[in-house]
Predict the 3D structure of the following.
Amino acid sequence: MAMNSGAILSAAFQASPLPSDDLPSDAEHGWRQIVHDLESSNRELQETNDKLIAALEELQSLNMALQSVNDALHGTNVELRGEVETLRTQALDMERMVSAVDVGTVLVDNRLALRNFNAMALRFMSLSKADIGKPISHIRHDFGLAPLVDLCRQALLTGDPIERVLTSSCGESILFIAREVSLDSRDPGLILTFGAVRGAAEPESPCFG
């Protein structure tokens, strides 16, 4: 292993000391001080180098850890995308199934604000996607003075389903049911259904629009 500069100078000085009559004492002291300073500087540089190496090793370890976290997050992201796609497909399937049923369906929250509806519900209420979030008391329906909002409030208050046979503007008998459902972990909502009464005569043409 190569000797550092301070060690070389020190060894050279010790191996071949100059005669005292050839080198004044002040010069000898200065020479020794130079050697000492070089050795101190060399030690400081070595300590700094050791610290830099340690810091580099820590950075390499941190980089490996971050890479592992990144790989894990990437895997989780792929799984979540797959789950979201599955849920989206299931939601579309459910929407198609509900739309295919010959019953109008309306979903409201505990404030009786519109959450969703199927295509069949348009026969009984004047609905659009722009109405989502609005109170159903602001939405026109086909049952004249029938107290739909009061019936919904009663269903929320008691937690029991409310059933009424309503008459549409063209005389069609419609079974209205307001049933409590769980929308989330805190508040319930209602699902409102409108279906023709069995055995009742159907109108020749739609009577609400």
